[in-house]
Structures are given as structure tokens and as C-alpha cells.
Amino acid sequence: MKRFSAWLKWGSIILCLLGLGGLGMGLLLPGSYHPSEITPTSGKSAFVELEKKSDAASKQLREMLEQANLGEVNTLTHRVFVSRTLLFLPKEKESVQPLNENLVTPDGINVSWKIQNGFDIQDPNVAQQDDDNDGFSNKEEFEKGTDPNNPASSPSKWIKIKIASVETNSLGIEFSGKSGEGRFTLRFLSSGKKKDVDVTLGDKLWVAVTAKGPEILKSEAEAKKIVEGGACPHAIPIVVKSYHQETGDRLDDKTKTPIAYDDSYLDLERLDGDKQLFKVLIQYSYNQGILYGREKRGVLWSVGDIRLISLVPGEGEMGPYRVGQSFIYAGKEFMILEGTPSKVTLIMKPEGEEVQILPKTP
Question: Which of 64, 87, 88, 114 could lock 81 by a disulfide, CB 3.0 to 4.6 Å apart?
């Protein structure tokens, strides 16, 4: 047992010495072992090379960001670079900030909307472009809350309607006479031409204003024939609704003598889109059977041709139409309430919403 213990003792000592020798070699010869995955280059460590490349990439990125030109945003004068979640504002103390969804680019579009729909926020032409070819620019789609990448999701087409031209022709209607037999005379005037028509209560007329002047028709079939022939885009249907007799005496302001007056009137009801009652007073007053004076106490309606134009590609000019006429566009019914060269007012049916149409700009 003693001999075995001696061998064990000396073996342990030798092993300890060999271990200490190996440790010393490692401490005295650092760098003599190189892992196979790292290859030294020009005597420089891989870590140094990686650090230099990172610095160069960061510098290049900063130069690119500072060259990005979005102009003024929210009245700020610095340039802005936007990522999915961050803004780079080189002139701010905190140059990197969270994305503000309300930030607006100079073209009036929110940055977040551009990012959401896949647009380049630095492209100055995004607002004018029509990526889904539905006839509406990206700016119009942004303003109306529709999808700029889906032609089935578009603003209402009527916002693309503009005025092409409006004629200022008018139609005057006067109550020019009456008889004791319940008959009355209406006078129609347009473009210096006139036409007198005898009517009774309940009579229905269609008034078509053509290049030859006013034409008074007694049936819808006759009116339809003139419209379909192109002589008039819209014949106005009216009915002689009622008669009101208002006669008596009044003092003349100048002579202070009694003067017989006649303020009798007819109610004419217009039956087209501009449906309402119009009061037409008789055109004369008299004193003891002598004509005392004439007054313009009739009605005046616009009958000029109105031409509109759709800016949707492939559609073009629409009309001619006239006040009171209805037409269908983009699945909606519109009636022309009034028309001047500077503004045409439409009423959308059945909603009753008024739509203002303005001239086409060059």
C-alpha cells in the first residue's frame, strides 16, 4: 500500500506541472492561435474593419437623408425623411422622432396615408397621379377617403363635372288680357319674338323655346317631337292653375284723385323639376276705362342652353340642358335649378342635396 501511494503522489505532481506549463504558454504567446473563420487583412483585426464599414454606412445614410427634399411640412423649413415609424428631422434637437400621423406634405396629403397606400413620400408627383386609372387623382382620393389603388373605390363622379358653356337666353310670360267668358291671354316672349295664346283655367301647355322663338304646344307628344328633333332640349310644362281678381280704386300719389286699378293675377304652375307656383299679374291698370300705365309684372325664366363637361377620361361634354330639366349621371338623378356662366346649381334627387358646378379652368 505504501508503494502504491508513492506512485499516486508523484503522478499527481507531474500532472500539475504539465498543466501549469500549458497555462504559461497561453499567457506568453497570445495571438498565436487564429480561428479559421477570421482571416487577418493587412494586419488589422476583423472587428476594426467591421467598425469602419459601419461608420461609412451611417455617414452615407445621413447624407442621403439630408438630400431628401420634401419642402416645407407643417410650416417647418427643415427637410423630412419618413420611415414606417420614425421621422428624421436633422434640424431638430431630437432628430429622430416618432411618426406623427397628422403630418402633411406640401401637396396637402398626410404622410401616413402615403405610407399606408405604398407611395413614395418624396415623390412630388404623387398628388397628381392616378394609379388605379379611375379618373381621380391621388389627392382627390385622399380628400374623399377612397382607395387610390382600387378603381372600384372612387369618389362620386359628379365632382368631375364642370361648366363648358351657358347661354343667357330668357323667356318672359305676361298676363296680357282677359274676357268675361273666363278666358285669358298669355304672352310669351323670347329673343325679341312673342306669341299670344288664349287659355282657360286648367289648360296644360308645353313651352319650347327654339331658334324661331317660343312655341306653345298643347300635348306632350308634340313637345316630345320637338325635343327629339333637336330644336329644343327641354319643353317646359305649365298648367293654368287659378285666377284671382283684385280690382278697386286707389289715390294717385301725384294728383290725389281716385284711380281704378286692376291687380288681378293668374297662378301658373310649372310642372318640371322646378315645380312651383308663379304669380303673373295683369299687365295694365286703368282709370275710368282709359289705359293708365303699363308695368312689367310677369315672370322671367332662364332658357339658355347649358353645356357641362365631365373630366373623367372618355366622357367629355354633356348636354345641352336647361333649367328645370333632369338628367341621369353616374347612377344619380340631377335637376338643374339655375344656371349662369359662373355657376350652375344642381339638385341631387331624391336626397335634395345641392351641388355647385363651376367653370372648367384652363
Answer: 88
CB of 323 within 8 A of CB of 299?
no
Cell, residue 136:
381621380
Give pLDDT tens digits for 278-302: 999 998 654 444 444 445 689 999 9
- Pick from 304, 349, 354, 305: which is nearest to 327 by CA? 349
pTM: 0.62
> 308 and 294: one domain?
no
183 and 261 assigned to the same domain = yes
Question: How many domains does one find in the chain?
Answer: 3
Element (H, E) at 26: helix 2-28
| Backbone phi and psi for residue 65, each to the nearest 5 degrees, phi listed first | -65, -40
At residue 78's C-alpha, the angle toward residues 76 and 80, to 5°, is 100
Q: Which three cell numbers, joined as nine digits, stand for 100?
A: 406623427
Domain presence at residue 141 = yes
Query: Does residue 209 belong to any structural domain of this protein?
Result: yes
Cα–Cα distance, 175 to 265 (Å, whole number): 7
